[in-house]
Structure formats: structure tokens, C-alpha cells
Amino acid sequence: MKSREAIVIRLEFYIKEKGVNPNKLAYIAGVHPSTIKSIKSGSSKNPGIVTIKKLCDGLNVSFYDFFTDEM
């Protein structure tokens, strides 16, 4: 599995677990909703580390926990 695919899976997992929709997460994280849509759809081939950190903060998940997975 490629890193980008793992990021999408983890992002979708935490969105569901936290009970937020992508638009609400975008607002909380301070990113444009199209950023999340691009990551999830795969059109963003290499999401930036700063963007992922903002999403983690918006989800109230540590950066470490986001990437600590057997995946």
C-alpha cells in the first residue's frame, strides 16, 4: 500500500470515528474543503505535511497516532 492510500484510509477512519463531515473538518482545521476532497479522491498525489498536521489538529488526533498504524 502506498503512503497516499494509507493517508486516505486513516483520514476517512478518523472522520467517521469523530463524527464530523469533511466540510466541518475543513472549517475546524482551517483548510479549504476542496483540499480534503482532493486528498480523498486521489487528485492530491502528495498531501503536504502541514496540511496533514492541520487535519490532525482539527480531528483532535496526534500526528503520531495518525501515522502509527500497522498499515
Characteristic key phrases:
71 residues, mainly alpha, 5 helices, 0% strand, globular
Give average pLDDT, whole number.
91
| CA-atom Rg in angstroms | 11 Å
Low-confidence stretches are: none
Strand content: under 5%
SSE pattern, N- to C-terminal? HHHHH
Q: Which class best fits the helix and strand makeup?
A: mainly alpha
What report would you give on this structure?
It is a single chain. The chain has 71 residues and is an all-alpha fold. It has 5 helices and no strands.
Furnish the topology, listing elements before pairings.
Elements: H1 3-18, H2 22-29, H3 33-41, H4 49-59, H5 63-67
Task: Characterize this entry briefly.
Helix content is 69%, strand content 0%. It is mostly helical and 71 residues long.
